[in-house]
Amino acid sequence: MAFFDMRIFSIAFTMVVTATVALISFALGFIIYSVSHPVFELNALDHVQQAQPTILLDDTGVEWARFYSDRKEPISISVIPDHVIHAFLAAEDRSFFNHAGISWRGIFRSLLVNLYHRKKVQGASTITQQLVRLLYFDANKTFIRKIKEQCVALLLERQLSKQQIMEMYLNNVYFGCGIYGIAAAAQRFWKKQVSDLTIDEAAALAAIMKSPQKYCPLLFPLSCKQRRDTVLRGMFYCSFINQEQLDNALKMPLEMVTAEVVCAPHAKEAIRGFLEPIVGADALYKGGLVIQTTINKDLQIRANELFKNHIIQLRSSMMPEIDGSLMTIEVKTGQIKAVVGGFDFSISQFDRALQAKRQFGSIFKPLIYAAAVEKGINFSMTEVDEPLEITMNSIAWRPENFSNDFKGQMTLAYALSHSNNIVTIKTLMKIGTARVIELARQVGITAVLQPYPSLALGCLDGTLKEAVGMFNIFAHNGLYLQPHLVRWVKDKWGTKIWKKNSDAVRAISPRVCGQVAKVLSSRLAKLKKRSPHALLTDAIGKTGTTNNCRSCWFLGSTPHYTTGVYIGCDDNRSLGRHVYGSATAFPLWLKMQELLADCQQQFVYDPSLRELIIHEKTGAVCSFADQSALSILV
Questions:
Q1: How far is Cα 96 from Cα 157, in angstroms, rounded to an integer?
Q2: What is the CATH number of the domain that holds 576?
């Protein structure tokens, strides 16, 4: 009880001191501003330089997309329905018509809440303050700027009516994705005039105000809908709508109009999300920036068509819900040359390449064996594939192979190339999980990694981008490069304001890399023999199929490119019995190689390694003519 009393006293004392300082600072600031700025230029926005779009260039210097400001002619408050205004009042400033520019009650309420939580969790800006910020200040959040903002808000209220302030606010507020003003938002989201907006649509617009970067419905429809429903309940609480209107509005789906056609829409949105916090929304949409991306426009367009045709084929033969993603990066730079995040961006903006996290399954196994080789284990060593029981915390686990059988003695090379579960688990238990987890972190895996034997089966979730970055180390001599979409950004004067730094990390040694890559090439060679598509260059690859056939993967590299393919359903349902990555993902990867000019190239292995031909089951040296022969490096 004493501790609780001291906490209350501390909070109250801090609040009083802070409030006193704030009031004194505000009073001084208001006097200074009142004397030196008796009248403010209310048409400040008219003098802003003409907005210039931001250009996105591909890796050959060709424009493939733009970010631009979408702003319509200002509209009069008289044509804006009451329920639209009420939505913004409920979401942003319920006492708008009762304060003189700033809300003292809101300031002290937020002060108390923030002090109690020891961090900023609630703001107190009125609509007038937000307008002042739009007209006269930048987005830098400082105490001095806040005091100035409050002073100007009080002065602005002396010059304009509440209706004028609300009109200017709605005509200039930012709705995300380069959209400024309520007229532009209504047209972009629903192809409507503001006068035709419904209650639920008005609430959706007001919902965006909390954070345009997080609630723009074009990018985050689910988050926007959840916030919209909160605004609707706020409108009901304020008696702006009745119970029937609330119930009807809550039932309405959040439906957007078809998005603009871009050759790499998922990449564009990823770039938007990455750069907007760095350069700011105004600069991104109105500043005339030039963004040098890594995308190759021609390859991207062809990859789009190839991916769509492949998914159509899978849907006709399997199930209509199937979707997936594809990504190709340059081995030595990590630059993403083409990325497809789903079947139809106009229907679903969810990015299955950069956002969707799916279980890795067998595509994680190369890391297990890389860690094993570092510990002195080589691929000619043998282990027995047999029934296995592992007891942890009094719980017995009996792992199985995907084929539901056991094949007895086999080399580790055979186990990796055929994705054997039991031998991989035994190998992991020999070397321990510590190095595997460390290695996973070095190659960009962000998932929670449990130090359990099940790690050998790829029991972790990750994105296709993470999977491609992980696998690329085996084509890049053991070096990890994070896959990326942007090389540099220049301002409208040609000055480089952001540049991608080299982030190459030595994950495994060239010697270990070569030994694992050689085994990965042997399995791919057998897969290629079963395919009608020719692949003239040297290549390595790994299939992956997770429990109950929920996700199918194929990761493959040539000396120049690493490409990953994911096939699955958004609800993570099973794709059916006996569905394999080799039959669903691998054919798309192979077709993608035909688009890449990467013929007659060979991997260069560490010169200290020598080739050894072994029997795939016993590990004994044998003739290459033996049908059970495997080529490894030692």
A1: 11
A2: 3.40.710.10
